[in-house]
Amino acid sequence: MSTVNLRKVAMIGCGFVGSASSFALMQSGLFSEMVLIDADKNKAEGEALDISHGLPFAKPMKIYAGDYDDIVDAAIIIISAGAAQKPGETRLDLVKKNIGIFGSIMPEIKKRNVGGILLIVANPVDVLTTAAQRMSGLPEGRVFGSGTVLDTARFKYLLGEHLSVDSRSVHAFIIGEHGDSEIAAWSSANVSGIPINTFCEMRGHYAHQESMEKIADQVKNSAYEIIEKKHATYYGIAMSVRRICEAIIRDEKSILPVSSALHGEFGIDGISLSMPAIVGANGVESLVPIKLDVYEEAALKKSGETLQAVLNDAMPQ
Question: Active-site positions?
Fold first, then answer.
């Protein structure tokens, strides 16, 4: 395994998500070197130049367009390459197109014996994470997806707005698929240790079921709404990518709902979906056993079955 430069990150795919994430990473101060790779070399060069011109206002950093030989010593290799989600298209509609794209990226990564972590951001992220685990030959803990980190941020934001409280004090997760079968884990949601319904009543909200359904739907449909209005979503996911990279580079052992492989937990086996996990320098260390009620457990199992069916269609065993 090649030695890793903890100050180096690689971005494969320089579309809206890749370039916004690269911009967020430049501002983060986490890295001193960033290589951008895209099928269109000009696009990668243009983004590298544009982002580099902000460096006098940030920390010194080398930002350049490169190729797969430049990823060997990167601590984190982020893959955002893929076809974009079009209005009216679900994340799962994208799967065959993007598994085809991964079919050309993964062999390049595999033959270079990389020492870093693969962070999958392209959609549908759960299916592509499983595909990347199989195609890359890397240990599972070092190949995971951005999962529901963004959905969970949307969830906390909306709960913070609803309750007029700092969203950072809200502890709640969206789990399962990053997509239509995702689950709001209400039974474990709390605000600084106070059960969510108790806190709602403290703030004068009593229509629990109605509010819960409305907020969960808003979270689930956020991406569709943004795509309809501005044709792509990229700032929220860029901040999520930055947050995950921070947890890895600083070995924070933060608990984040990333998409990683399950092996029998909640009756789900051999596919990746989002559950709270401890994320640090070695990638995903372990899953965190979250308390779910019977309805949430059943919904999570159904989410797993949905993803398994898509995976079977797109990638026969």
Answer: 178
Distance of alpha carbon 175 from alpha carbon 287, whole angstroms: 12
Structure-block tokens of residue 14: 């320089």
What are the Cα distances from residue 116, in Å, to 8, 66, 255? 10, 17, 20
The reply to whether CATH 3.30.450.20 applies to domain 5-145 is: no
- CA–CA separation, 278 and 257 (whole Å): 9
State what percent of residues in the chain have pLDDT above 70: 98
Which CA distances in Å does 48 have to 8, 33, 234, 236?
14, 11, 17, 21
List the domain boundaries for the chain: 5-145, 149-314
CATH class of 149-314: alpha beta
Tokens found for residue 10: 């690689």
Whether the per-residue pLDDT at 165 is higher than 80: the answer is yes
**What DSSP string describes 242-285?**
HHHHHHHHTT--EEE--EEEEESGGG-EEEEEE--EEEETTEEE
Tell me whether residue 298 is exposed, middle or buried, using C-beta atoms within 10 angstroms of its C-beta: 0 to 12, 13 to 18, 19 or more. middle
Per the CB < 8 A criterion, the answer to whether 47 and 13 are in contact is no
Is the full-model pTM beyond 0.90? Answer: yes
* Helix 16-28 / helix 41-52 crossing angle, nearest 10 deg: 30
Residues whose CB falls within 8 Å of the CB of residue 43, separated by 6 or more in sequence, listed in order: 14
Angstrom distance (rounded) from CA 144 to CA 132: 8
The shares of helix, strand and coil residues in the chain, as percent rounded to the nearest 5, are: 50, 20, 30
